[in-house]
Write a structure and sequence with these properties.
By secondary structure, this protein is an alpha+beta fold. 67% of the residues lie in helices and 9% in strands. It has helices at residues 2-37, 56-64, 70-90, 94-97, 100-120, 127-138, 144-163, 165-239, 244-270, 277-290, 306-327, 362-373; strands at 294-300, 331-338, 342-349, 377-382, 388-395. The radius of gyration is 37 Å and the shape is rod-shaped.
Length: 408
């Protein structure tokens, strides 16, 4: 039954990932449905077209023959409606809304509305609230307040000239309210759409950062672990013909490393893995000894914060992996010196210097980004005395930055 328990253990992380993925997918679906239910006015000029029904009174006067010069009135009504449609449809795109053509069309609307109101009065005065609606849609921004007040006063003055105080108060108030309410509703709708787009962009960035963190963790975990397993397997193969007990010891170490790697991978999947510097130093000694490299470890200074130890543990893991894989060194020195404010880690080997020395790959590049996010630095290069040196410096209280999971 041991094989069954091991298979169950192997399946459990994937089941956790599948359930987490299903939960995130369901959350995104719920958010999309909520956005659809509360999407607000659609971003199109068709929303403002029904308000043209306000001009039915003027059209009725034309059809009943009560308007003098009906040809002029009909042409004016047609041009006003055309300009209204032109301005309102352009108002739902910021670049077109702020273009000179839109402002010119709005000015022509104002002149035409003034002419029709002064010429005919009565129902034709209702074109001023429509002008205010178009102005509110096109002039959203810091100038809207002044423009709305001036337009309302102007409309009231024209209505007073044509129909007296009653028409002046009604038309002026209606013009101001139509401009302000339209601008407020359309501005709020646009802000909602921009916030939704910003939220989606933040979600995409968070997912990208989480993928980068996960790939970085897997690289560091599997790269180091597989290197140790390969080195210890080679040592066991060499020792088996002449020292079976020593070979069995190496095989036991391989089993231990494999089990520990399985645990670490599970912790990395859940995002809660924290390495320990002391543990990594012990593993480094074991891996270097198995590879035939003499390990020299020195540690001094005060105890470090957990976040600092975790980051330095990653550096030790990656640097020792590079020594085992690439250096052909016979000696490796690991020095940790901590102070009140800064801590310094150095991993130096005596291998032959190579033009393409390790340290420019994915592992140390990812560690450089991690340490920079925590206020530290990482340098790697050929030492003046020969060999390769990796140096990391961190604040004594650095905490590793971890992106939060996105569920919607």
């Amino acid at each position: 039954m041991a094989w069954w328990r091991e298979a169950a253990e192997r399946r459990r992380p994937r089941e956790g990932r599948v359930s987490a993925w299903a939960a995130r997918r369901a959350a995104r679906k719920d958010c999309a449905e909520a956005d659809a239910r509360h999407a607000g006015p659609p971003a199109t000029g068709f929303t403002l077209l029904p308000w043209l029904l306000v001009g039915l009174g003027a059209l009725s006067n034309l059809l009943q023959g009560s308007t003098p010069n009906p040809l002029v009135g009909g042409l004016g009504l047609l041009v006003f409606n055309s300009l209204y449609i032109y301005v309102t449809f352009r108002s739902f795109d910021r670049a077109r809304r702020e273009a000179r053509r839109t402002r010119l069309a709005l000015l022509l609307m104002a002149l035409l509305t003034t002419g029709l109101a002064l010429g005919y009065g009565g129902a034709w005065l209702s074109f001023f609230p429509l002008l205010g609606l178009a102005a509110g849609a096109a002039l959203r921004g810091p100038l809207l307040g002044r423009a709305g007040v001036l337009l309302a006063v102007y409309a009231g003055a024209v209505a007073y000239v044509r129909g007296g105080w009653d028409d002046a108060s009604t038309i002026g108030y209606a013009t101001f309210i139509s401009a302000m309410v339209t601008a407020a509703i359309l501005g709020l709708s646009e802000a909602v759409r921009e916030l939704r787009a910003a939220r989606e962009e933040l979600a995409r960035r968070a997912v990208a950062e989480e993928r980068l963190r996960f790939s970085r963790d897997l690289h560091d975990l599997l790269g180091h672990t597989l290197s140790v397993i390969v080195v210890k397997s080679e040592a066991a193969r060499r020792l088996a013909p002449r020292d079976l007990a020593a070979a069995l010891g190496q095989i036991t170490d391989i089993e231990s490393v494999g089990r520990q790697a399985l645990t670490e991978i599970r912790e990395a999947v859940t995002g809660y893995r924290e390495g320990g510097l002391a543990t990594e130093l012990d593993r480094a000694r074991s891996a270097l000894s198995a590879a035939g490299v003499e390990p020299v470890v020195r540690r001094s200074g005060t105890p470090l914060a957990p976040g600092t130890e975790a980051l330095l543990g990653w550096v030790v893991r990656e640097a020792v992996t590079n020594v085992v894989r690439h250096s052909a060194a016979s000696r490796c020195e690991i020095t940790v010196s901590g102070g009140a404010e800064r801590v310094r880690l150095t991993v130096a080997d005596d291998g032959p210097a190579k033009p393409s020395a390790p340290g420019t790959g994915t592992g140390l590049k990812g560690l450089t980004e991690r340490l920079a996010a925590a206020g530290g630095t990482l340098t790697a290069g050929v030492s003046p005395r020969g060999g390769f040196t990796v140096t990391a410096e961190l604040p004594a209280v650095a905490e590793e930055l971890r992106p939060t999971a996105v569920t919607g």
